[in-house]
Amino acid sequence: MESYLETGKEIKPPIDAPEKLTRKCGVFTSLHTLEGNLRGCIGYPEPVFPLIKATIGSAINAATRDPRFPPVTRKELNHLLIEITVLTPPEKIEVKDPKEYPNEIEVGKDGLIIKKDFFSGLLLPQVAVDWDWNEEQFLSQCCVKAGLTPDEWICDENVEISRFQAEVFEETKPKGQVVKRTLKQR
Predict the structure, then answer these.
(1) Distance from C-alpha of 98 to C-alpha of 95, rounded to nearest angstrom
(2) CATH number of the domain at 91-164, out of 3.40.50.720, 3.30.1490.150, 3.20.20.70, 3.40.50.620?
(3) pLDDT tens, per residue, the chain with 186 residues
(4) pTM, rounded to two decimals
(5) At residue 105, what are phi and psi to the nearest 5 degrees?
(6) What is the CATH number of domain 2-88+165-181?
């Protein structure tokens, strides 16, 4: 992010990157102010790019292309905490009755993707934990994120719901130590 904000150019991944960073993975970069407010969050839900390339791209996009916020300035970087969420591939949840969806997700473990027609919404696993949502609230809020009514997941059988898991890495202070975050289970 810092290099991009200085030069306008994306850095190239190192040639000698560890093998695990060259595997294709979904990833999101979230930026938070020191007060804990979201400042940007963009990523790739599907494993379409090598992790290292996807991380570079999502970091730049979170800082400069999140339509909810103005672009981050270079000066601001010293006052932001960076969180990287590495995703497993999404898995469609199959149920006979939409009322079964809450039984198929686990707050603190699963993230959600909800799709209907041209609408789509994604919430990372840590969002439900941070807001202390139960499974029904998580499903409803993901519908809202997709631009649907909160009860769309239970009222419309054309809604497709997928889950994924994630590893979350966060800074403890700006440009500081990075730790793996443990999400609390409900």
Answers:
(1) 6
(2) 3.30.1490.150
(3) 999 999 999 999 988 999 999 999 999 999 999 999 999 999 999 999 999 999 999 999 999 999 999 999 999 999 999 999 999 999 999 999 999 999 999 999 999 999 999 999 999 999 999 999 999 999 999 999 999 999 999 999 899 999 999 999 999 888 777 787 777 655
(4) 0.91
(5) -125, 155
(6) 3.30.700.20
Token couple for 28: 């999101």
